[in-house]
Amino acid sequence: MSPTRQSIQDPFKAWKSQVIGTTKPVDVFKVLMKITLVFCIVASISLISYFSLSIQSRWFGCPQCDRGFGRSGYQKITGGDVPRAGYERTNISHILFGIGGSTGTWGERRRYCELWWKPNVTRGFVWLDEKPAENDTWPDTSPPYQVSRDTSGFKYPSWTGSASAVRLARIVKESFELGVENVRWFVMGDDDTVFFAENLVALLGRYDHNQMYYIGGSSESVEQNMMHSYGMAFGGGGFAISYPLAAELARVLDECLDRYYHFYGSDQKIHGCLSEIGVPLTRELGFHQVDIRGDAYGLLAAHPVAPLVSLHHLDLVQSLFPSMTQIESLNRLITAYEADPARTIQQTICYDLSRNRSVSVAWGYSVQLYPSVVTAEELETPFQTFYTWRSWSTHPFTFNTRPMSEDPCQRPIIYFLDRVEMKGINHQILTTYKRLGFTPDRDCSHSHYAPLLAVHSFNVSAFQLRPESWEKAPRRQCCEVVDGGDGVESVIQVKIKECSHGQILSPASDRNTNSHTGEAASE
């Protein structure tokens, strides 16, 4: 190797030997540990910052909502999400009721409100047109009252409406401006509206109260919807407005009311203003305006698969139970409701093919016994026992109806709720239904009808239906007639249960379904 080449390599070797020779393994280890520690600290700070910003974005991603709705104390969920740990499900304390009333009507109509109002549990006010007389003691069983503000400055045409419609429309705004804490929903109703509050809570719990929602039901009579609007919630049946929507409505309502001064009712005025905000009606079938005349039996005995939320106009239809006043009837229905709110007046259909019979149960209200096999499609169609609201006509309604035959041999035998019993500790409930005494002008006298007339009561057993059931896709439950032996029976036993896999409400497949159910149970 030449001296020149060796001289080029020698400096590198000298540098290498210098570095390696002067650095100890312990020093290298210390340097690596310091670098690792610095890296961990930086990574930890980054992660903490990321999650803090992520949570803040998730909970407070709407600065406008925070500023506008800061008083409500609500917690946010997003559509379809399973509630997170620490989230409080919607309960009755999250609802503020606004009941439209007056000093002239409250003395008579308070009896309807007091059926469902629970002092120190339900929250809200009945809004009066003036302060009650000083010598009138306000009952403890009634909601507390508020006196509506003066509305004399608003426009209204005397030929289509009144100042009271403006006053009642402003209940939403005035309720919101009270600043009551922890409100998620404002629920409006009339002083003769009967709410089924637990079902209302279950229904509203399915919706994100941080979104703008307007929830209610239409009228049963087509003529009412055509006169007012198919798109509005009728106020007597009640409607719910979420907190964010109430905040926006309160901001624009007064100006809006003057634009819709020609509308007749408060509910129509509210709908007009909500249309300007751009929020449509979310329909729920359990709100009942009861815009019908006559006997509401057919409507209630074939209730849609939806929780019963409200009833209205009960002074203007026949008593729900024969031989009772309307208040007595409602107390009887509420007895069943208190035992199983979610199941109240839910229809269940089953068949007794050995005797060629059909049974329709409106739980907590009525049972129908048919002397033949009737399809489920026909049984779920309400009997037309009522007339339209305005013209007392036989049609049209917003749902299908079927006629109640004049021939007693073509009609079912009808049984009404008699008592409710809790059985054991597993929340099984036994309801008993009895028929009225024999009436020759109403009952069939044919011999083939005699075995049915011998049945004087039904015993219906069912486990309590959980409110969470309404969070699933709606499906009518199944039932079976429990065979009590051969011969004439005076009491028929019916058991309600969830439908088995593959089970359908078809008399033609009932035997096959029962066989399939038995095989499944034995596996």
Poorly predicted regions: 1-23, 53-85, 511-523
**How would you write the strand order of the largest sheet?**
11-12-13-15-16-17-19-18
- How many extended strands? 19
Question: What is the mean pLDDT?
Answer: 84
Rg is 33 Å
Distance between the termini: 91 Å
Please describe the biggest sheet, giving its number of strands, its sense, and whether it closes into a barrel.
Answer: 8 strands, mixed
Q: Helicity level, as a percent range?
A: 25-40%
The helix/strand class is: alpha/beta
Q: What overall geometry do the principal axes of the alpha carbons give?
A: globular
Q: What's the total helix number?
A: 15
Strand content: 15-25%
Oligomer: single chain
What does this structure look like?
This protein is of the alpha/beta class and 523 residues long. It is 33% helix and 18% strand. It is built from 15 helices and 19 strands. It has an eight-stranded mixed beta sheet, with helices on one face. Strands 3-2-1-4-7-6-8 form a seven-stranded mixed beta sheet. Strand 11 and strand 12 form a beta hairpin. Helix 9 crosses helix 10. The chain is globular.
Question: How would you summarize the topology of this molecule?
Answer:
Elements: H1 3-22, H2 25-59, H3 63-68, E1 95-100, H4 103-116, E2 123-128, E3 145-147, H5 163-169, H6 171-177, E4 185-190, E5 194-195, H7 197-204, E6 214-216, H8 222-227, E7 239-242, H9 243-259, H10 266-277, E8 282-283, E9 292-294, H11 297-301, E10 310-311, H12 326-339, E11 347-352, E12 357-362, E13 366-370, H13 376-379, E14 386-388, E15 413-423, E16 428-434, H14 450-453, E17 457-463, E18 478-482, E19 491-497, H15 510-522
Parallel strand pairs: 1-2, 1-4, 2-3, 6-8, 17-19
Antiparallel strand pairs: 4-7, 5-10, 6-7, 9-14, 11-12, 12-13, 13-15, 15-16, 16-17, 18-19
